[in-house]
């Protein structure tokens, strides 16, 4: 591949922008990802930075590794990691980490983020000040919804200041809740690992007299992990997700159904997404540093309610509650996610070299593409409760409508 | 869902057939899979049989389990397993196994086939004699290319004899080499498990002085497992697949490249698909009971060639050969395959009840569908050596063209 | 081995008793375990029962399986499982489960208890009434301290009633806290699995800005699991066990030390045994059905204290709390425990056939032996805080004296 | 601990020697391992080297890591790794690797040897020349029987040259075949991992019509791994070890027994140690670079014999052969081995500082001790075929005497 460095042209439209001659985001806002014939930067002059934000997600290290590999393939010498998310741009004592193939060669064998993560961070203008001061040309941002919004704000501010900086995001949400995308990395691994917890709950429930196993799985606004993990395990009797409201009490409530299961089957397993049934709880209205609402703990709430219910009706019940969140988040990526991360990471670099900015590297309808960040941060993707997958989940659990 | 049993109508076309009023296979030969409003059999009169053929593949038990569950949901009481593949239809001493939800509840937790598998079997006419004698109405056949051809022959013979029998296949090939399908069950698990072998080869190679790790992976006519496993592991220096011919000797041969790797990097890892480089070997022309050509062992061949080569040039080399085939095949399905198996199994039963026969239950361009068996047995699917995935694999390994 | 059935002789001493001519418990209260030349029961007249009590522990199914196998080897035909612990002796609707080699062949491949467990149960006299009514000759009791006391009471009551019943216990405590024994089954597996949680905590802590990973491990009255898991992981900075008291606050308290670790190292991992620091908590004095004190949750307590402390000093800290209890308990036995279970199970049966009663089958100073139950229920075994193993743990963590 | 550096005194006896005033190897040749009040070296003047020899074994990295940690605790600044075994002492282009806590912090999370291994090496005098030239004061040698002999020769040569060098070995044999020791590191992990192979063989055998699973496990001169793995898996029908000779053919041969198993049970699993039945094979008399005899492959031999036998008697048999050797050797240590490695590594350093040389750090009758290398290299430890463990294994497999 012969590459020629082409000139910088000023942004031509709102949202993601590019200098690829074939590109017009106004009419066509999705682009096939991959290397371009012409590249927009002189590789040996480029300083590239990578930053990982938010909570842990399997595959972060795979993406970091692949971004470094691909940058080196282009000939980039100056690659740095910003430690601990956007916080690394301003916190004193946190230093840029020089990155190279040699250093990141095996980081994918462990979970976590080699660069460190954190939530929240400084103001956009401060980050861009720092980008300017550090003379960064390409910024690769790995993060979820909030981080994408942040990446877009940085992109906008760079445009405003006429800075020649490519801001390229790679979506990182274990919940798989970003619209338009087939799946986000880490999700497959999460579903895989979640089954370990479900199987433990099943064994505890089955081995106990009137055992009830309760597992809370990740899903800040969607039930994808809970639904997929329930379906793949085949051991779940009740799956509760935020997209489908349910009553705990009452004739058609969850508790009544558990009572029936204990009576007929002797034990049962419940899988609940963390955001499910929030309307049943008193919420504080508080938010974390990423701006996400702090959810009340539906798992603990249900555990209490189930205990009280069975005590009230004088039936013995032995409830075991498992919250595997951190053990899932800290996993390394499985093979399927590793491939996804590899491709997304390579494409992120191709996108930056093509002169794109304000884009995110993702897979959409089986194709790897670039989407403008603005298009994916409007609202979280949610389980379609009339769709086939949820219906299959209901068939598998055999649960009724809890209303 | 209210279901009415509709009348049997004679087959209307070649290949797969159905009595679904909306169905005309001549014009439209792919049908969306799923339950139909009208069903073609009276559930409590149905005798359904399941048979698993060929080699082991992760997920067999998941499909068996789900077929039984779904049959019971329809109300079928008489479900049997035919032991050890088509052999179970005639071998004396092998008895039908009555199946029920209770019996198969947890079979998915172990690998292998609960019913047993075998290759080859009796003539089609003998199998259909047995089907008649046993009064089987639905036959669910899990197997690969050869087995699908067998299923189709059974379907044809049943039509010829005017038997009201639905023959529904579920494709089982760990190699993922059936055309039209996005993927077949077991493949994802195989790629996952293959990485354990690759990682062992990497550790052995890296820990040895001039270490060379050689891993042979499954792929009777395609390199999908080798390609995906190499890409996801990120530890492979040379990936060899049957779709891309290569020379071992010569200036641009594999051996010369290994020499360079040992010189520059000190160690290397080679991943070879079992059918790769068959043109380099002397083949016996023999076939196994399934009619598959018995391949010469490219892994052992390469191990010898590498040893000889390095001895010849007077350079120390420490080669370790790993063949994880049976340890991969005997795995239980991972979460992703478990979901695939669940849906394919459910759909197989829906298809039979809809009156289809001669079909296979699969996923095609992200949709679950029924395809006529005749359409998928023409030739194996192969890696597109000009495609992006193979190109990504080459980028990952950094290997040159070996010709 | 030729076996002759010898006559029943009345018990000769307090505690465990036997009719083995070589045995005199008065002088020598430990006996080498294993088969005896003479057996005390006519195998084909024996009814043997197995019961599992208390919480789950890896290896229960291995012991059950081996007891059944060995009983069949002796020629016993009538083997039953009492479901859900001692509760199975009286709860209506709970039926004896007939057991055979065929049925239990593969139960060791899954965790949990095939028979079910429960805590507490009926009065001793009621249990013995049930034993009489069921005509049980041998009772194999798997359980911990409380269960051993129960087994001994049953043994005494049988003696009092002149019943020819062998009561043989197999110690089951994941905590490894029974005196005189080298180790109890399940402990090794628990330490192994605990490392998964510690590694997750390490990854979460290391990947976060000022991350603190906190893991609570099992240990109702001892710190063996916490100590061994900390030592083997090599990733723990502070290990807290009940045998060594500590202050949280103050100049030499744990919190002050964490502050230093965060300052110097940036992150840290704390491993706390569930019974550690109970003196720091307000206890309710309540007990569970097994008679064990219900402990206040030191993990949650520490999580709160750490949060408050760092907030108080204005230093950011990101704490992640992991409680892997049920995921550890539900594991299947690892290889080392599987061998231990196999031998203990075989020996339990040999002991019963030798005519012993009131004994427990264990490993003591590398020898497999029978001990009188009375000798092992006096008090739990505890970590010697002046011993070498604890000292090695301190060397590994580098923690100071927290007082 | 206050430490005083004491003077060097000349060696006082043959074999291992020490300057510990309490030590007299003539009368008492085993010493309790651990730190001594007086140390023999000035830590900040010490140059310590570590070398790993032979094949891979789980736990090598744990020992390396702990030796480095403990040396740093003593205050040693100059620590180096000799790459690729003794070969690293002379091979041009191989450089000493400076080691530090920071560098080795997480090496235990991966299998293999961080330093690299190799077999064979230069003459003793050349190694000692190199030791002198490099000014090494302490040499930690991790290896098996042959390596221990090498370590002892180095120790002798150093004494002859009046060099103040401590040569301390840590026994590394996955086979657990060194006399006097309870167990060697890596063995427990090997037994654990071997079960994955046995379980695969079991699943393949059980799922096939007349399936025979054959697993070859490590054991160059002993059957410990095969015996323990067979016992712990509970899935093996025939276990063959080098300590117990057997016939394949004939009325009481293995093949006849397999015939019976296929007839009665339908499938079977055979586990064979690599050195078993060598008398049945034609051996070349060749040795590898470590001086070990190159064994003929009993696994492949049996596979052929079984095929031929069943073909000869006209009975279908489907044999699957699994050799998991490299996948076992490349594993990281499990928790139990990790603790063993930690203590052995710490003790090796304590021993060197105490002024011992020609010793090996091991566990003997539950105590951690130092033994003179000369005592442990006389002959390999072997399974006692009249012992209880082998008897238990026979009980578990149910196999007869094959003679």
Structure, briefly:
Chain A is an alpha/beta fold. Chain A is 35% helix and 16% strand. At the A-C interface, helix 5, strand 12 and helix 9 of A face helix 5, strand 12 and helix 9 of C.
List the secondary-structure elements of chain A in sequence, H or E: EEEEHEEHHEHEHEHEHEHEHHEEHH
Compute the separation of the termini of chain A in Å. 61 Å
Query: What is the CATH first-level class name of the largest domain in chain A?
Result: Alpha Beta
> Which chains make the largest contact?
A-C, 35 and 35 residues
Strand order of the largest sheet of chain A: 2-14-13-8-7-4-5-6
Low-confidence parts of chain A lasting 5 or more residues at pLDDT below 50?
1-14
Rough outline of chain A? elongated
The number of domains of chain A is 2
**Beta strand % of chain A:** 15-25%
Q: Could you report the average pLDDT of chain A, rounded to the nearest whole number?
A: 91
Give the fraction of residues assigned to helices of chain A.
25-40%
Q: Please, what is the oligomeric state?
A: homotetramer
Cα Rg of chain A: 23 Å
Structural class of chain A: alpha/beta
Largest sheet of chain A: 8 strands, mixed
Q: What is the count of helical runs of chain A?
A: 12
So, CATH architecture of the largest domain in chain A?
3-Layer(aba) Sandwich
- The CATH topology of the largest domain in chain A corresponds to Rossmann fold
* Strand tally of chain A: 14
Catalytic activity (chains A, B, C, D): beta-D-fructose 6-phosphate + ATP = beta-D-fructose 1,6-bisphosphate + ADP + H(+)
Function (chains A, B, C, D): Catalyzes the phosphorylation of D-fructose 6-phosphate to fructose 1,6-bisphosphate by ATP, the first committing step of glycolysis.
GO cellular component, one term (chains A, B, C, D): cytoplasm
InterPro entries (chains A, B, C, D): ATP_PFK (IPR022953), PFKA (IPR050929), Phosphofructokinase_dom (IPR000023), PKF_sf (IPR035966), PyroP-dep_PFK_TP0108 (IPR012004)
